[in-house]
Amino acid sequence: MSTLPTMKLNSLQGEYLLPDALLLHFGGSLNEVKVAWRIDGIANAPVVLVLGGISAGRHVVESDRPGWWKEMMGSGRALDTRQYRVLGIDFLGGSGSTTGPFAGQTDFPSISAYDQVEVIRQLLAHLQIDQLYAVIGASYGGMVALALGERLPQLTQRLIVISAAHRTHPMATAWRSVQRNIVRYAAARGEGAEGLRIARALAMATYRSPTEFDQRFSGEPERTANGFSFPVEHYLFARGDAYAATYVPESFVCLSESIDLHRVNPAGIVVPVTLVAIREDQLVPLSDMQALQKQLTGPSELIELSSIYGHDAFLKETDALSSIFAKALA
Q: Which letter does DSSP use for residue 4 in this model?
């Protein structure tokens, strides 16, 4: 049973307009960039920046709306808002309230994880946060965490990185390249949402493991007027429909490309790093996580988990990750 006292939890959020044009890592600039942020927790407690996949945003903790990582973050949870303040942001180039492409836009510039880091740096200065207690990043958020650890080590005391390495594996890029071209092809014909629906369905097949699909979708197909329909097909396109209803296709293309452009120098990361690898992850192979740890300059630990949820394990393996967080944040 928790011994933490009952305290008033604060929730603050806003949109910060960067004072100057944002110079981008791959060239060009963006004017009037705004970043949407939210912070939940006890006033004056240490701040932990939490970053997820390209669909995640500033709503991390369960509050006035469902948090995308509500199983892990909040009062009495692994990252306890009675002990820490949880800071979340909407990614640059994404489909949230931070600056990103609008539907139908084809000229939004390429975005690097380093650009996300620069936005975070300016936001922290605006919020008068001199140093983060930790950065926790999963998937794309883990890539941004690594970029922050390399570029601005003075901004955080530690990193916890789940399912993200120093580079993107070519096989993962192969899958995402097909997804982006599906969206571009459909958008050029005025059917961006339908393209995103198909691309997301394909992406879902890479997020999970063959073991899970075998357990859930090995039933017989159903005959329809257009041929046969398979159990796994229903699942994939239901997820595609839900995603396409809420996400801007061009934002998916932007951040999917940002993932594949990801490269950091592990030797430049000197802050302590806890790495969490999933053996069944099809997108970030265990061998890449092992290679990353070998090249890190600062203290590091690599923890291997096994999960039928594959790359999505960070959203599902609450108990295992809670133990890891407790140790890494101690």
A: P
Report, as an integer, the average pLDDT of 75-87. 93
Per-position DSSP letters for 37-106, written without gaps between them = EEEEEETTSPEEEEE-STT--S--SSSSS--TTTTTBSTTSSB-TTT-EEEEEPPTTSSSSSS-PPTT--
Dihedral pair phi/psi, residue 328, rounded to 5° = -70, -30
* Residue ranges of the chain assigned to CATH 1.10.1740.110: 171-258
Res. 4 pLDDT band, cuts 50 70 90: very low
Structurally, at CATH architecture level, domain 171-258 sits in Orthogonal Bundle (1.10)
Q: Residue 67 burial (CB < 10 Å; 0-12/13-18/19+)? A: buried
Burial string for 93-132 (b: 16+ CB within 10 Å, else e) reads bbbbbbbbbeeeeeebbebbbbbbbbbbebbbeeeebeeb
**Residues with catalytic annotation?**
139, 281, 311
Q: For residue range 171-183, what is the model confidence (pLDDT) as tens digits? A: 999 999 999 999 9
- Structure token pair of residue 83: 């002990």
Q: What is the pTM of this model?
A: 0.94
Digit-coded pLDDT (tens) for 57-71: 999 998 778 899 999
Distance of alpha carbon 185 from alpha carbon 257, whole angstroms: 16
HSE at residue 136, side-chain half, CA atoms within 13 A, is 24
Q: Domain 9-169+264-329, what fold?
A: Rossmann fold (3.40.50)
Residue 99, both tokens: 């600056």
CATH 3.40.50.1820 domain locations along the chain: 9-169+264-329
Give the DSSP H/E element, type plus range, for residue 303. Answer: strand 300-305
CB atoms within 10 A of CB 73: 25
- H or E, element range at 174: helix 170-187
What is the enclosing helix (H) or strand (E) of 9?
strand 9-17
